[in-house]
Amino acid sequence: MASMSHSSIALCGASASASASVLLSTTGVSLRTLGRAMVASTKRSNLYVTARLKKGKKFDHPWPSNPDPNVKGGVLSYLSTFKPLGDTQKPVTLDFEKPLVELEKKIVDVRKMAAETGLDFTDQIITLETKYRQALKDLYTHLTPIQRVNIARHPNRPTFLDHIHNITDKFMELHGDRAGYDDPAIVTGIGTIDGKRYMFIGHQKGRNTKENIMRNFGMPTPHGYRKALRMMYYADHHGFPIVTFIDTPGAYADLKSEELGQGEAIANNLRTMFGLKVPILSIVIGEGGSGGALAIGCANKMLMLENAVFYVASPEACAAILWNSSKAAPEAAEKLRITSRELVKLNVADGIIPEPLGGAHADPSWTSQQIKIAINENMNEFGKMSGEELLKHRMAKYRKIGVFIEDAPVEPEIKVNMKRRDAVISNSRKLEGEVEKLRDQILKAKETSSEEAPSSEVLNEMIKKLKSEIDDEYTEAARAMGLEERLTAMRGEFSKASAEEHLMHPILIEKIEKLKEEFNTRLSEAPNYESLKSKLDMLRDFSRAKAASEAASVRNEINKRFQEAVDRPEVREKVEAIKAEVASSGASSFEELSDELKEKVLKTKGEVEAEMAGVLKSMGLELEAVKPYVAEQIFVPSENIQEKVEKLNREISEKIEEVVRTPEIKSMVELLKVENAKASQTPGDTKVSQKIETLEQQIKQKIADALSMSGLQEKQEELEKELAVARELAAEKSQESLKEDDDDDDDDEDGSESEKPEIINPHFA
């Protein structure tokens, strides 16, 4: 045997083992023989060969072998590290879902009360459940774009592997990009649905914080896209249809990913997917962000779950870029048109997969079955196409996105100062904040009945701002509907006709009415209709608040002035003297007083009323009449009479509207508006005032003649007679009940000396 040095040799690793094998093979001695020789002649040589064999342990899957007995073979036995969560996910309530949570809490409380007390609350529970279902339906059928974004990002929303678990018979995950890395943010594998094999590729988010960190929150690196590309080539080679699931905020944009060629990896996927001759179906199950979503989304068809979103930039990023604030995300989400319905209209998406009320997380299994149905339907359609037809179909899908019409007239470009636009939006945001603050202040004042309600000056300023905003909204709506030029021309004709001081021509009135009707009919189609409607509601609410505030202010001022008038020494002395005389007379009612005392009471009453009338006159108010407060005279008509009154009021209103729409009255009303405008410019012009008064009398007379001709006046008189009879009957019953009460009081007397009732006129109190 060849001589060997007496130094120790350590053999470790694959390369070292290879070197040792080569060395020993050149000596002509096998490794096994050498091992035996070394053991036998340990004392003669210092060369030792030591080998440690670690006993392999069979891999134990962390899930039961057959978790779902309804699925042959147990679907989870084919998965890798994905397993059911040990604990159920914590419920997460979005901001707009809080009213539903309150209803749920009420239902739970009522059921708990029923269980504790043993009482039957079935009707109440059924009512609350019906109310809850209706509220849920109303909420989820009128979601705003930003609300759908929040649902798409819901922490409990089912992930790619959750759906795979529900729709596949078998699934085997495939790993690695064959370049040294396996990105957990993209999962790939082969699975079967109803016996047909598919290549599944999808973004995988985590279901809790630990998983999200491991999955990088569903944001792939270049390794993930290269793994997906490898599986696409594999599927194309073996003829497997490809189904991709999109659910990512976007590709991971860190420094390392850029160094490894993030853009190149995405671009390579885009190019390759347009050349694959197998069917490709993409399904957006959550959010699809930018190129990170498109890198596995170039398909023959792209379907979206009902509450999924697909965007080039997130609403928050868009708002930060355009408006320098992420708080404008709701407006950005609306402008981006990122929801499934909008994208189907734009031909970006090809279909919508329904979700249960409450979102996909409300019933993941049902949502997965809808996805399975969609996959089977579309793959049956693609199965009839050849490879070349699939390529043409895929190309045609993206060629039809966006419509271009050649030789069509183009509106002149409107140049907008960006900074000025930013200022307008900033002012709009500021106004919204002021409106909310003022509303809270008004509601708080109503609830606490305090005097901390906003002043009339504050309300006037807010109403002025809202009117300005509403004018801008109307202008924008007219521009969007293409009516701005017609409105401007009509405004010019109206101004010209108003300046000529004669009745407006019936043709011009008809043109104005037609344009007005067209504008009102098409107003709901304007893109800013919701904003305009919201501001009109705000204006109405604040106008009512202003009227209530002014009425309360006037009422407080009147009460203060009345109190001052009554507290004057001369008035108080007269009132106290009359009180003393009435008390000493021993009379129990006004009728029992002597004629002289009655005259004194009436005289004092007249003086007090004169003082009150003077107070009102000093405030610019007129006193029409003074009615004594008698509680028993309150009269509530029967339901039959109320229905008749309401019906007559409707008929009168309809008749008045019909009369006002006639050309003659219209022209008189327009002329009256012109004269009122002139009167506001020249307040002291008596000629204009007389003309206004004459026109008002003529219009009233025309309406009165039309009402008398229609027979409504006779109906009103008959109804007034019926009301008078009913009022008399009610008064008689009231007097009878008062007499019975007096008799009861007399019976209750026990003979002891009691104080005599003090008879005072209500106006003296």
From TrEMBL:
The gene is accA2-2. GO terms for molecular function: acetyl-CoA carboxylase activity; ATP binding; carboxyl- or carbamoyltransferase activity. Component of the acetyl coenzyme A carboxylase (ACC) complex. First, biotin carboxylase catalyzes the carboxylation of biotin on its carrier protein (BCCP) and then the CO(2) group is transferred by the carboxyltransferase to acetyl-CoA to form malonyl-CoA. Pfam families: ACCA (PF03255). It comes from Brassica napus. One of its GO terms (cellular component) is acetyl-CoA carboxylase complex. Residues 127-381 form the CoA carboxyltransferase C-terminal domain. This is acetyl-CoA carboxytransferase. HAMAP family: AcetylCoA_CT_alpha.
